[in-house]
């Protein structure tokens, strides 16, 4: 092809010679007043010239570019007749050499096309000659160029797409776009081409494919704006490998409108009766020195025979499917854990056209924002990314903190489950359906780690992790990636917690990059993004890499609409904070369950010895005391006995309870109508029982609500079987018990005594009556509360009505006598008044309680222990 221009010039010279002959013949013909036929000599000259023109054309249109489009073409090799970047000529017409009406010699008219310019014909594709001609040109181009060398953007306002029907295979395989038949779609086509031209200003890679707008006719409504845009593309396109093949151009405009602009770098064919004329071409050498174009009329090139286009497109479409296919396994490296994270983390997330798309968490793009409407594939995208990362980097190089605030199981893939006990060794904490409190705890864990790293870097005399790792390979400092799905939940409420979360997030976003801490924040809603934005540009600006899935355009620049109509499995990746010029269209694969499971097992099998599963927090999960390892470890050999009540909503879900020692006030009150109150007393009693040798503690059980009976029954059975004296009492006996315990002189306490009172609010009323001496049971109760701990007597009571509890302890003056509270469904104002702290914030909710301990100033959200299945029963009276 190196001599293509020489061959073209030769053809031009021949053409000029032919033109001179035609002109001479015309003059002679006129002189003889049209009576004399062409002489034999003239005919011989035409035949010779036509032959030589055909030879010259054959040199510049090898193989598919010039061969007859008949059955023999099927045997031709595809993809070998043209090269990207070279000027490609194509057989576009048949020139007719000879006097008008006389015998003519035909020759192939090869016009310069891809790599240099455009071709336009003024009839649109409703003319069958034009339709066949266009198909032929497209077929030649597709078949001659290397596989993947041409992307066509079809436009067809003339036959509404039927022009391109034979090319359906390529459209279905997404090598070609779907034909645009409306003016809006035409505009989108022009947008894409213009973006290509704009992006090419910085130079184009040698393997960049051609982008060809092939229009069988412009759609109704296209006007001067679209014509001007086409003219601009015609002018600037070739340098960016953007070309035009237009039928119906220039269109015949309505009267009063100016003619559409002529297109630069374009060979124009214009109908003239049955034949067509050919203008000058984009080649440097003019066909005619005066710019008159081809001197003789032409017939448009013949159409391909039926079935030929399909026969060519079929293997190309199949090959394209293979080359552009993305599947989950394709994102994974052949060998796991071979990469170093010293300078950052990188993973392949999908394909950008045929090329793989790799994204990084490093100094340039330390944090990512991901957005997409529900169902757009955000969870799948995150799984692709996280499995890609955990497969490339070992747990020494990368650790994950995964937080999900929505209902869903996105991150369950990383944790052991009942059916699959494996986990991803990089996962340190996984929060599923997390509470905001848990989210804050994770952020604080990361902040602490950041401070630790800062100190270590300081000691080493460097300021960035990358510098530390460059000098020392003995430091274990994996990069930490925190993924927060539906992160905006952290900011809901605009309360203290929201402010604390925003502050923690901002600090991590600002400083994290230096210490190898990266954030990936994902959201379904624009309001999520707005929530972040309202926290100030200081956070938002730390996320230069935006990944917008369908409907996630809110994280892009306001003028950037590229994500509006994305299909599932596609994303706009933008590393310039959403600026429209920086869009990259990426397709990511579905996370097929079988492939994900295989990869998880690969990673799990390679886990380091002794690797522990991640600390999992599943917001919906019930917690039962008998499966708690901390409970099982309890023995009587304990210094300070604990009444365990649940698990803290914190990283690692630590077991929490109240120390019940001799300090005044060490009694527990559980408040709220929820039946979970009974379960908490049950759990506290069981845990205390494990800390006593049988026979060294008495359990006095009083129950005043039928709903608590099964709990009490189970409790007394368990205590009795464990060898602990356990006595059930009614209101009268409880009063007697209190009287005896209050009067230490008459009844010295010999063993630890635990008063377990279920629905104590009922007892409060019964205890308020005076006896014959004028003394009330409440007075005894208060004495026991006041002096009991010093004598090994503790009360653990469930008050369904907080006011009754307050009455029982004697109002605010008795607050110090019961230092340990667990609030269930008690209104915030009531609770705040009860404990005398108006800054307290408590939102009652299912499966949560607030633990308050006056003595160590604790206010901790907990998941209270419940009896198994408690939350399965909708009629259980829980919150
Ligand atoms: N690349 C893809 N190719 C094919 N199907 C996909 C792809 N990505 C996602 N899907 C499918 O689309 C559906 C929604 O995906 P996904 O659960 O990831 O969406 P989401 O944005 O996380 O939605 P939600 O926020 O509601 O959970 C799933 O059935 C998933 O299998």
Description:
The chain is of the alpha/beta class. It folds into three domains: 4-322, Rossmann fold (3-Layer(aba) Sandwich), CATH 3.40.50; 346-617, P-loop containing nucleotide triphosphate hydrolases (Rossmann fold), CATH 3.40.50; 646-867, P-loop containing nucleotide triphosphate hydrolases (Rossmann fold), CATH 3.40.50.300. Helix content is 33%, strand content 20%. The chain contains 23 helices and 30 strands. The strands form five sheets. A ten-stranded mixed sheet has the order 22-21-30-29-28-23-27-26-24-25, sandwiched between helices. Helix 17 runs parallel beside helix 18, helix 19 (731-742) packs across helix 21 and helix 20 crosses helix 22 (802-809). The longest helix has 28 residues, at 4-31. 48% of the residues are buried. Residues 372, 374-380, 408, 524, 568-569, 588-590 line the site of adenosine-5'-triphosphate.
Strand content: 15-25%
Helical stretch tally: 23
What are the low-pLDDT stretches, counting only 5+ consecutive residues below 50?
A: 875-879
C-alpha-based Rg, rounded: 41 Å
Find the count of extended strands (DSSP E, 2+ residues).
30
What structural category characterises the helix and strand content?
Answer: alpha/beta
Q: Strand sequence of the main sheet, in spatial order?
A: 22-21-30-29-28-23-27-26-24-25
Amino- and carboxy-terminal Cα gap: 80 Å
Helix content bin: 25-40%
GO molecular function: ATP binding; DNA binding
Keywords: ATP-binding, Cell cycle, Cell division, Nucleotide-binding
Protein name: Cell division protein FtsK
Binding site for ATP: 372-379
């Amino acid at each position: 092809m190196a001599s293509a221009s020489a061959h073209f010039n030769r053809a031009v010279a021949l053409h000029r010679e032919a033109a001179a002959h035609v002109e001479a013949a015309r003059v002679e013909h006129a002189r003889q007043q049209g009576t004399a036929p062409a002489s034999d000599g003239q005919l011989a000259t035409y035949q010779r010239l036509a032959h030589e023109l055909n030879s010259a054309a054959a040199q510049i249109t090898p193989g598919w570019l010039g061969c007859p489009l008949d059955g023999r073409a099927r045997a031709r090799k595809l993809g070998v007749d043209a090269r990207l970047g070279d000027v490609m000529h194509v057989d576009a017409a048949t020139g007719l050499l000879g006097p008008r009406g006389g015998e003519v010699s035909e020759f192939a008219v090869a016009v310069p096309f891809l790599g240099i310019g455009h071709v336009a014909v003024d009839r649109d594709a409703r003319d069958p000659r034009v339709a066949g001609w266009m198909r032929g040109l497209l077929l030649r181009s597709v078949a001659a160029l290397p596989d993947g060398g041409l992307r066509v953007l079809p436009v067809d306002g003339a036959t509404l797409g039927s022009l391109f029907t034979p090319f359906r295979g390529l459209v279905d395989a997404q090598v070609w776009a779907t034909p645009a038949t409306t003016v809006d779609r035409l505009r989108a086509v022009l947008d894409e081409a213009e973006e290509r031209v704009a992006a090419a200003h910085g130079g184009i890679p040698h393997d960049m494919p051609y982008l060809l707008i092939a229009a069988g006719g412009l759609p109704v409504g296209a006007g001067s704006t679209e014509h001007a845009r086409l003219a601009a593309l015609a002018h600037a396109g070739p340098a960016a490998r953007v070309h035009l093949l237009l039928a119906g151009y220039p269109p015949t405009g309505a009267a009063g409108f100016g003619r559409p602009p002529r297109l630069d770098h374009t060979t124009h064919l214009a109908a003239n009766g049955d034949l067509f004329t050919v203008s000058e071409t984009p080649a440097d050498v003019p066909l005619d020195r005066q710019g008159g174009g081809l001197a003789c009329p032409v017939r448009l090139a013949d159409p391909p025979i039926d079935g030929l286009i399909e026969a060519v497109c079929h293997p190309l479409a199949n090959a394209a499917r293979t080359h552009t296919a993305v599947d989950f396994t394709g994102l994974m490296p052949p060998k796991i854990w071979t990469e170093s994270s010293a300078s950052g983390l990188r993973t392949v997330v999908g394909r950008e056209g045929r090329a793989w798309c790799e994204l990084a968490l490093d100094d340039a793009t330390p944090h990512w924002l991901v957005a997409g409407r529900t169902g757009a594939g955000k969870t799948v995208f995150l799984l692709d990314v996280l499995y890609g990362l955990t497969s490339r980097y070992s747990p020494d190089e990368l650790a994950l903190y995964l937080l999900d605030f929505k209902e869903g199981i996105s991150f369950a893939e990383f944790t052991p489950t009942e059916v699959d006990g494996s986990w991803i060794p990089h996962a340190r904490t996984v929060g599923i359906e997390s509470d905001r409190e848990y989210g804050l705890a994770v952020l604080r864990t990361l902040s602490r780690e950041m401070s630790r790293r800062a100190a270590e870097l300081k000691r080493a005399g460097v300021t960035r992790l990358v510098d530390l790792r460059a000098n020392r390979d003995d430091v274990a400092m994996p990069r930490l990636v925190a993924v927060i799905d539906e992160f905006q939940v952290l900011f809901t409420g605009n309360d203290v917690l929201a402010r604390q979360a925003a502050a923690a997030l901002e600090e991590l976003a600002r400083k994290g990059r230096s210490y190898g801490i990266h954030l990936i924040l994902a959201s379904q809603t624009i309001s999520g993004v707005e929530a972040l934005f309202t926290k100030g540009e200081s956070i938002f600006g730390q996320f230069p890499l935006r990944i917008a899935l369908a409907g996630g355009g809110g994280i892009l620049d306001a003028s950037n609409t590229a994500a509006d109509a994305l299909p599932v499995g596609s994303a706009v990746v933008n590393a310039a904070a959403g600026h429209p010029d920086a869009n990259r269209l990426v397709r990511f694969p579905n996370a097929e369950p079988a492939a994900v499971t295989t990869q998880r097992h690969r990673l799990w099998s390679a886990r380091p010895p002794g690797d522990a599963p991640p600390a999992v927090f599943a917001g919906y999960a019930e917690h039962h005391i008998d499966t708690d390892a901390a409970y099982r470890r309890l023995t009587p050999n304990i210094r300070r006995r604990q009444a365990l009540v649940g698990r803290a909503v914190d990283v690692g879900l630590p077991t929490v309870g109240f120390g019940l020692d001799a300090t005044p006030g060490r009694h527990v009150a559980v408040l709220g109508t929820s039946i979970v109150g009974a379960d908490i007393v049950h759990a506290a009693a069981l845990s205390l029982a494990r800390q006593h040798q049988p026979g060294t503690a008495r359990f006095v059980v009083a129950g005043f609500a039928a709903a608590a009976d099964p709990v009490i029954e189970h409790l007394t059975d368990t205590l009795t079987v464990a060898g602990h004296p356990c006595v059930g009492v009614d209101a009268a006996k409880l009063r007697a018990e209190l009287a005896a315990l209050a009067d230490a002189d008459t009844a010295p306490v010999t063993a630890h005594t635990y008063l377990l009172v279920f629905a104590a609010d009922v007892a409060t009323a019964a205890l308020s009556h005076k006896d014959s001496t004028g003394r009330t049971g409440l007075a005894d109760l208060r004495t026991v509360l006041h002096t009991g701990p010093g004598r090994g007597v503790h009360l653990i009571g469930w008050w369904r009505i907080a006011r009754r509890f307050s009455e029982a302890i004697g109002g605010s003056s008795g607050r110090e006598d019961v230092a340990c509270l667990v609030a269930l469904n008690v209104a915030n104002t009531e609770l705040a008044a009860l404990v005398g702290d108006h800054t307290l914030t408590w939102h009652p909710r299912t499966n949560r309680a607030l633990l308050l301990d006056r003595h160590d100033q604790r206010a901790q959200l907990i998941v209270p222990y419940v009896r198994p299945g408690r939350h399965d029963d909708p009629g259980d009276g829980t919150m």
